[in-house]
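Q: Given only this backbone (346 positions), what sequence would you predict?
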């Protein structure tokens, strides 16, 4: 049973008044009126005193709880101060503290729920993506084992197909690894000043064979000034490789892919433009999500993992930048991103 300060004071005061009256009744010279007066005085006096003392003790305890809540909150928020009303009443302050603390916890719970849903979706996506090349390779190998191995032409064809599926699986696993390493922060960006034109020239060289095969003209438009940027060489190479690779993949034979630059006082914008199939506008915001493809079968047929642009997005986020897309269906697309010029070169 929990008594309030007032009830406690009342009970104790009655007890003290009774003891006082009982004690005084033993003294012969005290009259009945005297007993009543002494009883009333001792009751009121002790009631008042006990009530004030109890309230003070409760007040002190509440203040302690309030301070402890404040400390807890500070620890949770890493030193960020809460918005306090600064009221004198500790109960009001406690109420505010508990409310904001509960709000904070609710936010954390919501965040965790979102992450959990995201994790489940991701596992389902990855399993699905892995299944496709594994099943394909498995099918070819089993057909060979079931007798097709004896036919030389079928054997070579099926082995080539199985190898292609396994190569695709390798690329997918590499992309997944890169993405997860960037997301978990295992890969730290190594910022340095370097020549962006040199990087782009290396990327262009890398695609020489592919562009020749598809008869695609890959052009690098050199600007007047030097392009010294401050970024991570390896990661920006990956960004350019993914963007140029997509541009070539989604451009029909005989098309053109151009790398150009827009230089301002502080930044350099790199643009990768193609004359390919283009992207309908409603997909712009989603193509940077993992495994999102405008045309699933087309992407797979071109060996796409569906992770290229997600990797681009994460790397650019690591550079406090982002990729922009402009596109017109049937005419082509331009992917661009901005990076800061190196201080030495501004
Ligand atoms: P993928 O491996 O499928 O190419 P990406 O993440 O690199 O995955 O790209 C996501 C999707 O965006 C692609 O499947 C494709 O539909 C679309 N896309 C990307 N780049 C281009 C481009 N240059 N032209 C047309 N569509 C593109």
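A: Predicted residues:
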């Amino acid at each position: 049973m929990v008594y309030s300060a007032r009830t406690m004071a009342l009970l104790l005061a009655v007890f003290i008044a009774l003891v006082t009256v009982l004690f005084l009744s033993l003294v012969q010279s005290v009259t009945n009126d005297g007993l009543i007066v002494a009883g009333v005085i001792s009751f009121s006096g002790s009631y008042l005193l006990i009530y004030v003392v109890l309230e003070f003790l409760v007040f002190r305890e509440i203040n302690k709880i309030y301070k402890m809540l404040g400390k807890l909150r500070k620890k949770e928020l890493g030193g960020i101060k809460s918005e306090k009303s600064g009221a004198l009443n500790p109960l009001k302050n406690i109420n505010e503290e508990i409310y904001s603390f509960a709000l904070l916890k609710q936010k954390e719970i919501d965040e965790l729920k979102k992450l959990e849903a995201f994790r489940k979706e991701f596992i389902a996506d990855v399993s699905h993506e892995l299944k496709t090349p594994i099943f394909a390779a498995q099918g070819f190998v089993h057909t060979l084992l079931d007798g097709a191995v004896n036919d030389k032409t079928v054997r070579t064809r099926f082995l080539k197909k199985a190898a292609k599926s396994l190569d695709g699986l390798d690329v997918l696993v590499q992309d997944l690894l890169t993405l997860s390493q960037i997301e978990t922060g295992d890969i730290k960006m190594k910022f340095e000043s370097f020549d962006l034109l040199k990087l782009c020239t290396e990327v262009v060289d890398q695609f020489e064979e592919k562009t020749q095969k598809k008869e695609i003209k890959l052009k690098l438009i050199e600007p007047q000034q030097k392009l010294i940027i401050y970024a991570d060489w390896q990661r920006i190479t990956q960004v350019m490789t993914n963007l140029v690779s997509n541009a070539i993949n989604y451009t029909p034979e005989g098309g053109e892919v151009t790398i150009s630059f827009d230089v301002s006082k502080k930044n350099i914008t790199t643009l990768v433009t193609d004359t390919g199939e283009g992207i309908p506008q409603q997909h712009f915001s989603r193509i940077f999500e993992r495994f999102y493809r405008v045309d699933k079968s087309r992407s797979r047929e071109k060996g796409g993992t569906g992770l290229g642009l997600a990797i681009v997005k994460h790397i650019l986020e690591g550079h406090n930048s982002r990729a922009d897309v402009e596109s017109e269906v049937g005419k082509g697309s331009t992917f661009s991103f901005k990076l800061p010029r190196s201080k030495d070169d501004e």
